[in-house]
Amino acid sequence: MQKRHLDHINVPKDLRQLSVDDLPQLAKELREFIINIIATKEGHLGASLGVVELTIALHYVFNTPDDILVWDVGHQAYVHKILTGRKTVFDTNRQFGGISGFPKRSESEFDTFGVGHSSTSISAALGMAIASQLKDENKHHIAVIGDASIASGMAFEGLNHAGVTNANLLVILNDNAIGIDPSVGALKQYLTNVKKGTQKQDNIFEALNFNYSGPIDGHDLPLLISELNRLKTVKGPKFLHIITTKGKGLKQAENDQVKYHAPGKFNAKTGELIVKSGSSQPPKFQDVFGLTIVELAKNNKNIIGITPAMPTGSSLKYMMKEFPKRAFDVGIAEQHAVTFAAGLVTQGFTVFCNIYSTFLQRAYDQVIHDVATQNLPVIFCLDRAGLVGEDGATHHGVFDLAYLRCVPNLIVFAPRNEIELRNIMFTAQLGLDHPIAIRYPRGRGSVIDWKTPFETLQIGKGIQLKEGKDVAVLSIGSIYKNVENAIENCKYTGTIAHFDMRFVKPLDESLLHHIFKTFKAVITVEDGTVVGGFGSAVLEFKSKYDYSAKTEVVGIPDEFIQHGTVDQLQKVSKMDVDSLVKTIEDLLLSISSS
Ligand SMILES: Cc1ncc(C[n+]2csc(CCOP(=O)(O)OP(=O)(O)O)c2C)c(N)n1
Ligand SMILES: CC(=O)[C@@H](O)[C@H](O)COP(=O)(O)O
Ligand SMILES: [Mg+2]
Q: Which residues are catalytic?
């Protein structure tokens, strides 16, 4: 039987004992190792399979961790994790209490920079390279960035700066011509021309003062190693362009790169996806958005849809197929997406700008300066709001209620279920006087028959879901389901009322006056941070009108919640049904004894 190299490798020092001739065999073993684990544990597959050779070559040639390696996004860093001390715990990847799916400084000295959001690697590595210069250290600094991520404004800002320094920085462009969905834009066309040899004008990266080399085959280990060794001797900013195949080594992943970006469970031997069958289930919120915008766009020719690089994740792909001229994938460019939407709105269009809650953080100034200050009625649809699960701390959409609530002019709404999402989309496209942010969670809702006739929602109006007399529980968004279940499970269920406040801004003040005048105690529940969110808004109201009802705020505590299933993370945040039962019953007890 052939000797398995991977069994003897725990850290890059072990790897450096192998000969270059041994490395292709190691690449094969690494692919098998990753496929076997991700097939059952799930995670980002295609990107890591595509950089097996690159990762081996980097740790082989450079003296990591003294030489500094920064991964962009970090979803492609599984090989890096396995070769840097985490092989034996790799099966805990993205699981509760296990290692993170992204590089994380607290996890390993080889993880030089925490990532998850894209396009940060060049700036971070440049900062490290300049720091090394200032400290008189002789190190190499390498940023590995994908073709979709390098098209983002932030990456260009880093290149623009690096090009006027003599920092010892190597930027490696891992060009597989795809992000999660196919890459877009003029830069993509430029890179294609470079690869075909039809690019006649100056090389962009050389024009920015980088010493450019490539494009070379990123799966050719001896070539990669000799090129990296050569680049080690070149001073100043350098740029290596490599061509790889996303999903390399698993036929299905190479053929369907979108699906196998993060395929869920699959058969490790055949590569076939394991599709859950069984009774019909509620739709994903993203599909309610994607199918509803198509429905609305059929009758309203003014409607435009925008996504920054997430056509599949947001389901805007349906509109892109049906109305290609009115639906835009602008690439990983959240800032541009927001201001592009604002521009379209100034010209009378009705624009749905769909951005994952966590990624909108990057475009905060555009929301305030370009949209809200001018009161332009952009319709923001913020997908993946609340806890997202296994992607963890970098991806939870738990800050949006707090960071949006303080912006003047903005309406902030969270649908309780699919029907409410549909109805608020319908209401918003009829024409609002203000911009609106509609935030909804990852995954499925709670209503199977969601395609009900459209209804107009009244802006700023909450509703009562259940009668009661002592305690009022006020929820916002889809977390209402946990509240509903908790109330059903409480000992004195009849004494507990439940309200869906729907709007965090404007707050339904008349309903709140009624609640604070009627109930002895109030509990607010949100799947967002307790600092400055919905509960804070209710506390501000209570303080302003000097109400005395005992009030408790339930939500995400003031800390970064890590990775795990949503159920596990809700427990951590005391938002699961059992914890809610306890909170409600404790409060009932305290008011009955006071
Ligand atoms: C700011 C931001 N927007 C969107 C995403 C979602 N996202 C994660 S990976 C990815 C595609 C990255 O493509 P590329 O850089 O080409 O790397 P590849 O997956 O091809 O290795 C996107 C859009 C993100 N992580 N960060
Ligand atoms: C790495 C990254 O940012 C994306 O791949 C993200 O994990 C997508 O999340 P969804 O699976 O919720 O679309
Ligand atoms: Mg790519």
A: 246, 334, 362
